[in-house]
Design brief:
Length: 427
């Protein structure tokens, strides 16, 4: 009896072993290929991007995406990529990069040209400025994921109270400020004047509104032009002559500090990016009291906004470029961008989405973004842009703080840019 039971147990064990062998041999789960997506963003953004990644994985079951979340401050992100890409890492496949890094990374051969991956039809579906911001030496190096432009936010309730429409020109803006702000005890025009990249953006918008440029269409340095002097004079005058901008504009005001003043009811007008719209709508005090329009212009110029935003690129050292492209194509598709616009208020880069009724209804500022894109200003798309930016920040801030005249500051930028360009050509 005991012998029979032992035989039965042995037979069952054999059956189990054979069954497990068959399962492990013929029914192996498909091995997923992992790609790494490197991104720096806020908590809310990362949370929603994780949902999008999960959707991509369901549609592409053979691919698993690992998010490499890095510090959100752009200067820290830039340093991270200088270190990792400079070391020729293969551990990143897709990365989100800032507009101003593209030429630098492309010239260093750190990011992969995408011309072989994208069709002509798909390429043409993106906003036209893509061909200026994302192309270097004739090759497309990144796909625009979301666009950002400078906008003019204003206290709609106060303009209506005093019978004013949103200003079209700087003259109108100054006139409105001088008539309303003393009565309401607030600042007139809030903007970003501290020495950092945001000041460069503001400067380019001011000069762009007066038909000025830093570099012309032929590549010549024209930062010291008469148009630019007039624009910089106005920037100074907003603080010192008209006194409609805070006296600490050049020492403290950045995007968030200026936004906080505005949302605290301490400003009539605010220059800032697209993200401010949603924050104002969520603010119990500001909801319904804020309007948005294009930035003022000079009489002879056009409304001018600087182009900002984030782009998707493929690491040139990646061993999984085709799969990396599949993720980029999914994330930048019209379907995904609409979700990003509805959930994160990101301004899309697919042209057709600016005609989408659902988006227009939920985000009325998109019509202003679309108008701003018609004369959008692009920061110099050059490998040595960071050096140019450093000079512009430093000298324009010196003019705003009354350490230099406008002409002295612009001439210093011109001389520095000429030296930078000469050094780059020699190397």
């Amino acid at each position: 009896m005991i012998l029979v039971k032992k035989k039965q147990i042995l037979l069952i064990s054999v059956y189990i072993f054979v069954g497990l062998w068959i399962i492990s041999t013929f029914f192996k789960p498909e091995k997923k290929d992992e790609i790494v997506f490197s991104i720096g963003a806020g908590t809310k953004e990362i949370g929603f991007i994780e949902e999008l990644v999960a959707e991509f994985e369901r549609e592409n079951p053979a691919i698993q995406v690992k998010l490499n979340v890095i510090s959100s401050p752009t200067d820290q992100q830039h340093h991270y990529y200088l270190t990792t890409l400079g070391a020729k890492t293969e551990n990143i496949d897709v990365m989100r990069i800032d507009t101003i890094w593209l030429a630098e990374f492309a010239s260093a051969r750190w990011i992969e040209p995408l011309d072989a991956f994208i069709t002509g039809e798909d390429r043409a579906s993106f906003i036209p400025v893509t061909e200026k911001t994302n192309v270097y030496e004739g090759y497309l190096y990144a796909i625009p994921w979301n666009i950002n432009v400078g906008l003019l936010y204003y206290r709609k309730d106060l303009l209506e109270k005093y019978g004013f429409s949103p200003p079209d020109t700087w003259e109108e803006c100054i006139d409105i400020c001088r008539k309303i702000t003393p009565r309401e005890n607030l600042y007139g025009y809030l903007w970003q004047g501290k020495q950092y990249e945001g000041l460069v953006c503001n400067f380019i918008e001011f000069i762009g509104g007066n038909n000025g440029r830093i570099i012309d269409e032929n590549g010549a340095t024209v930062v010291h032009s008469v148009q630019n002097k007039r624009a910089l004079d106005l920037m100074r005058d907003l603080i010192w002559k008209f006194k409609i901008s805070p006296p600490n504009t050049y020492s403290e005001l950045m995007e968030e500090s200026s936004r906080h003043l505005f949302q605290q009811g301490k400003g009539l007008f605010l220059r800032n990016w697209t993200y401010v719209w949603d924050l104002c709508q969520e603010d119990p005090f500001m909801a319904g009291r804020v309007g948005v329009t294009q930035l003022p212009r000079f009489p002879e110029g056009a409304h001018s906004s600087v182009c900002g935003g984030w782009h998707l690129a493929v690491n040139a050292y990646s061993k999984k470029k085709e799969k990396a492209w599949r993720l980029i194509k999914f994330l930048s598709s019209g379907k995904t961008q609409k979700k990003l616009a509805l959930n994160l208020a990101w301004a899309p880069t697919k042209q057709l989405l600016y005609k989408d009724p659902e988006l227009i209804k939920q985000a009325p500022l998109l019509s202003i973004v679309e108008k701003s894109l018609r004369n959008v200003q692009v920061r110099p798309n050059l490998p040595y842009y960071q050096w140019i930016s450093d000079s512009v920040q430093k000298q324009i801030n010196k003019a705003l703080s009354d350490q230099k005249t406008s002409q002295e500051a612009l001439q210093a930028i011109y001389s520095k840019m000429e030296r930078i360009q000469d050094d780059f050509r020699k190397n």
